[in-house]
Write a structure and sequence with these properties.
The protein has a single domain, classed as Class I glutamine amidotransferase (GATase) domain (Rossmann fold), CATH 3.40.50. The longest helix is centred in the last third of the chain and has 12 residues. Helix content is about 25%, strand content about 30%. The strands form two sheets. Strands 2-1-3-4-12-11-10-7-8 form a nine-stranded mixed beta sheet. Strands 5-6-9 form a three-stranded mixed beta sheet, with no helix packed on it. It is an alpha/beta fold. It is built from six helices and twelve strands.
Length: about 200
């Protein structure tokens, strides 16, 4: 059973549809026990950084989410804003604490590009990775903020939009995507299937 954390700020219908296509049962949860004990957990996100962080705290889920993310054997998927919440902070919401799983701060795209980035873009795994979660491909993005550099100890992929930024991180069974794999066609569906397996 894939447990999808219900922060109340994410549009998750397309994600649920992707799991349905995979014939993977899912459940929408706000329950700490589900997050701690589930084989697979998804932290989705579309919307404001502050609203998502405040929802996590209001539901009392911060400790259980961080615990799970620090255990890379636990299959955990973070999507879009869900990936940004891994950082300690974001330029979108000064003074709001992220989950702090990685030490980096999420920054806004500079003024040389249109924001948000909406549409398809290339995702290229770093050649220095210790493992390959996926082949290079095209993914669907909807973001105004991004992670500039990969944290130590993580495998990563990059995308070019006004310069290189980190579009994916993975370590063990933890996978974090700035893009939306559930909206990224066959390539994204394959990535979801690899994570679920």
């Amino acid at each position: 059973m894939i447990q999808i954390i219900n922060t109340g700020v994410a549009n998750i219908r397309s994600l649920q549809a992707a799991f349905d296509r995979m014939q993977q049962p899912w459940n929408l949860t706000e329950n700490i026990d589900d997050i701690v004990s589930a084989s697979h957990v998804v932290l989705p996100g579309v919307g404001a950084y502050a609203a998502a962080a405040e929802a996590i705290d209001r539901l009392g889920l911060r400790e259980s989410i961080v615990q799970r993310l620090n255990d890379h054997d636990a299959a955990t998927l973070c999507i879009c804003l869900g990936m940004q919440l891994l950082g300690k902070a974001s330029a979108e919401s000064p003074g709001v604490d992220g989950l702090g799983v990685i030490e980096e701060t999420i920054e806004r795209f500079d003024t040389t590009v249109q924001v948000p980035q909406l549409g398809w873009n290339n995702v290229v795994p770093s050649p220095t990775n210790n493992q390959t979660m996926f082949e290079p491909g095209e993914a669907y993005f909807a973001n105004s903020f991004r992670l500039n550099s990969p944290p130590a100890g993580w495998n990563y992929a990059t995308t070019d939009y006004g310069g290189q930024f980190v579009s994916c991180l993975w370590q063990g069974n933890t996978l974090a995507c700035q893009f939306h794999p559930e909206l990224s066609g066959k390539w994204g569906q394959t990535l979801l299937e690899k994570w679920a397996a």
